[in-house]
Every structure is written in C-alpha cells, then in structure tokens.
Design goal:
Number of strands: 0
Largest sheet: none
Helix content: 40-55%
Shape: rod-shaped
Number of helices: 2
Strand content: under 5%
Oligomer: single chain
Length: about 50
C-alpha cells in the first residue's frame, strides 16, 4: 500500500500537486472476535 502511495505522490509532484499524506491510509486492521455470536448462544444454553 505504501509503495502505491509513493508512486502516486511521485506522479502528483511531477504534476505540481500536493502529495497525499500517509495518514490518509488505514494501516491498522480492526480485530474481530470469531464465533462471538455462537459463543453467546452457547453461554446462554449452559446457564439455562
């Protein structure tokens, strides 16, 4: 992703445009808990 941004910024600088900051990129992934719904159903069945 950063290599693409570098290439885009190189073309933008040749065209006289401002570069795109790397802060515009989402570099962190959101972690999700797999089986969260199934775990809740299991917990409800065990308690009942």
């Amino acid at each position: 992703m950063l290599n693409i941004t570098r290439a885009v910024n190189a073309r933008r600088s040749r065209s006289g445009m401002e570069p795109i900051p790397t802060s515009a990129l989402r570099l962190r992934r959101n972690s999700l808990k797999p089986f969260l719904e199934e775990q809740a159903e299991y917990d409800a069945a065990v308690v009942a």
